[in-house]
Amino acid sequence: MFSERIRRPLGISASELRYAPVPRTLRERTAPTETGRQRERDIALAMTSSSDDPASKPLFEGPLRGVVHDGNALFLGGAAGNAGLFGTAAAVFRLCSALATDGLLFTTQELELFRRPLGRSPTDIRTFGFQSGAAEQAPAGPFGPHSYGHVGFTGTSVWIDADRPLVAVLLTNRVHPRWTDAPVQAWRREFHALAAQLGGGARS
């Protein structure tokens, strides 16, 4: 389905973008993430007092490469709604550009679902599949409250301003070889400020 509806219409090869674990032949080209998935193990261990709990056992001994980092997506087959997309920066940019331009993959009405706020909490606002730029914790910066995007635990993010249109893809890696408590959201806002400046200036 992903190949037929998304990848092929955009002219992107399976070696550039895939919604599944990366085959072994391509893993040397894939950035490694955390060794042993230690951060998720630490979180799971904090919620249990039993040394027999499966969370106390390492799932992988070495660094993950070409395998989704998120444990939930892993147990759902290696790809889920929140994680599991592997791609080059150029391929991710082409995909997200289609989320910002009517007619490439989606109709105007479908694209409106990506930007219209549908769910709210005290600190977050969600659209259909994305975080709204209007959310207090969103890294939108000068992309503005009508923008939308997705941030990844490993340090990745994409942010889209469909009105200009402007797309920013940031593929960083804060989990290799170990997770660190880094100011990633601040870095994303700085990156978006530079992208907005290069793409036509910040919004007022």
SS class: alpha+beta
What is the percentage of strand-forming residues? 15-25%
Distance between the termini: 40 Å
User: How large is the radius of gyration?
Assistant: 18 Å
> Approximately how much helix is present in the residues?
25-40%
Number of strands: 10
Assembly state here?
Answer: single chain
Count of DSSP H/I helices:
6
Side-by-side strand order of the widest sheet: 7-8-9-10
Cα shape: globular
What is the succession of H and E elements? HEEHEHEHHEEEEEEH
Number of domains: 2
Task: Give a brief outline of the structure.
The chain has six helices and ten strands, in the order H-E-E-H-E-H-E-H-H-E-E-E-E-E-E-H. It has 204 residues and is of the alpha+beta class. It folds into two domains: 2-87, no CATH class; 92-198, no CATH class.
Structural topology:
Elements lengths: L1 H6 L9 E3 L12 E4 L2 H9 L16 E3 L5 H5 L9 E3 L1 H10 L9 H8 L3 E2 L4 E2 L4 E2 L15 E4 L4 E6 L4 E6 L12 H15 L6
Antiparallel strand pairs: 1-4, 2-3, 5-6, 7-8, 8-9, 9-10
